[in-house]
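User: quick one, fold this
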Amino acid sequence: MKSFGVFGLIAALSASTVAAAGTPVLAVRASTTVTPITVTGNAFYQGSSRFYIRGVAYQPGGGTGVTSDPIANSTACLRDIAYFQKLGINTIRVYAVDNTANHDTCMNALAAAGIYLVLDTDTPKYSLNRADPSISYNSVYLQSVFATVDAFANYTNTLAFLSGNEVINNSTNTNCAPYVKAVTRDIKQYIGSRGYRSIPVGYSAADVAENQYLMAEYMNCGTTDQRSDFYAINDYSWCDPSSFTTSGWDVLAKNYTNYGIPVFMSEYGCITNTRTFQEVAALYNTEMTGAFSGGLVYEYSNEGNGYGLVDISGDTVTTTSQFTYLQTAFANATDPTNGGGANTTSAATTCPAESSDWQVTGDSLPAIPSKAAAYMTTGAGTGPGLAGAGSQEAGTEDNESTGTATAGSGAVTATASSSSSTKSSAASGRAMAPFDVKPFSLVFVVFVGLIGGMALL
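Assistant:
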């Protein structure tokens, strides 16, 4: 199917400028606004109405081995929005962006179409290294993360930031958990310190039975400044033909029913059999919505791993049968009324005890590196983009964490809103810490594995 032309979605765009260090990035970026998504209890809300994520993962070209920014590619983004609307989605997830690029055109167009963004703050070069998290948790890394927050915080359709993806991918590297949680804390603190609206921050966990729920408890335990705003899971357990019980989703729903913050599926859509998306009906049914706030199908474009809803060749987009199945599934899945069983209060969990599946002692977190703490006041300044030198081996005595942080010492206070607005190439690459490998080629995944890698399911 030929790509559609763009249909007058864009209003006049405001010019954006790069803020120098020390200057809050509060300039109006988006001329088209939507109601920002907020969190109450264990659910997301759009104004007073509960918001269910209906979305797809979006990283065209992720299988080429070259990282690109789909939000900065306005031509492709405007082309693809027409297909997003045909699917009936309200959210996209993007795994990597260039934090030096201008994103106004795409973000405005997405907002005009009523589509929100869930954004990973890591990139292949700037992320935690699960093989050595203490060295990779440094001010060089956090400067890139904070610069990405600066680039997207003023778009009202920025739904949430992901502080990491599948950093923990088995029972042997749960020692990374305090660093994942520290990054989540740091992003929350940066958002508050820089005067941005309160944008939800959370983590995307791997589909690992041994510790997925342990990580959920860990991300929601402790003081307000330590707790995540939400928890997301990558889940591929429903493989058509299946059912609510055969897939184990009944257990998922039960496990998270009394969880105190929103949960959603940051990736789903098994391809073991014909991909007809029968699970969509269950995901937006009250049997799940008491605990889950929807999810994101992996993935929009075919990157050579069988998960694509569309094929892209040059400027031409051709829909696959998966696209049609998902379109139909979304059309037939009606959101529950009366809040869908959500809880309106938020309760912290108890931190999990150390065990063979959980190699974390106590609830202390690494203190933010002093150079990174300075960004809370000065601002992060210009980011390194996708072509920077990288941060995973940039740790030094001057820019790493020294000691632990006292719980509650970095309490985040919500501030007034600013004026603006075969699972392979990515799905199964599991080598380098919090960045999702899915969007990238197997060549890159193998390379990453050799150097101790990045979590990119």
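User: anything notable?
Assistant: The two ends are 30 Å apart (CA to CA).
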